[in-house]
Amino acid sequence: MSLEAAVRLTEILLALALVQQSLEHLRGFRDERILFGVRVVLCGLVIAGVAAPWPLVGLAGLSLLILHRFQGPYNGGSDRMGLLALWCLVLTRLLPTPALKELSFGYLGAQLMLSYFISGGVKIVNPDWRSGRALADVFQFSAYPVSQNLRRFAERPQLLRVMSWAVMGFELAFPLTLLWKPALVAGLAVAATFHLANACLFGLNRFFWTWLATYPAILWLQGRLL
After folding, report:
1. How far apart, in whole angstroms, are the C-alpha atoms of residue 67 and residue 196?
2. What is the rounded distance in angstroms from the CA atom of residue 174 to the CA atom of residue 195?
């Protein structure tokens, strides 16, 4: 995958993710409707490839106003990853030399890889994750599950322990997928399925779309390194 193709695909996927996030604000307060209405329009221009790269630059500027409005990335990790992707794309489009463009876009791919690896590292040092108790708490006490039947998983400690170690093992091993493209493709498919399951079971839909938008960056980075 060429740099231009990977950047363009990331732009489109990120714009679609931002549109999805913006729609929930169009019934909010007046200032929210204005901010997110403008963002939807700019995302449409990015998807259409009109007047590039200025709609992307406009989204970056608008992101600062949204951060001020909500006093930070109010939706946690998915907002932070979206901001990272957006600003890396802006730098990739505006930096003057091919080497700097590659550095900026490659940084996004590296951060995606680290997002999985660090998440696994944080989990494995936590005894509640190693025992499966952390997942039990998710199913038993979380406000997100769409079905009360899902809470019964909290009564199956052996299964939850296996699930916990499967998640931690995958996240910690994820950097190894960079050594072989088929392994990376398979790893991203597993990761996307994991995010999709979280979206369907717990309502964490932002993570699915935002992380999916960054996958072209790591696919390009792997090809560039090897």
Report:
1. 27
2. 15
Spatial distance between the Cα atoms of 218 and 9, rounded to a whole number of angstroms: 12
Dist CA 9 CA 13 (whole Å): 6
Residue whose C-alpha is closest to residue 135's, from 95, 104, 90, 168: 168
In the chain, domain spans: 3-225
pLDDT tens, N- to C-terminus, the chain (226 residues): 899 999 999 999 999 999 998 988 888 788 889 999 999 999 999 999 999 899 999 999 999 998 888 888 877 788 899 999 999 999 999 999 999 999 999 999 999 999 999 999 999 999 999 999 988 888 877 666 556 777 777 778 888 899 999 999 999 999 999 999 999 999 999 999 999 988 887 777 888 999 999 999 999 999 998 8
d(CA 107, CA 190): 22
Q: What values do phi and psi take at 70, rounded to 5?
A: -105, 10
CA distances from 157 to 58, 133, 135, 140, 166 (A): 49, 8, 9, 12, 14
d(C-alpha 221, C-alpha 11), whole Å = 16
Instruction: Tell me if the pTM is above 0.85.
Output: yes
Place of tokens 């409707």: 33
What tokens were used for 8?
Answer: 């363009």
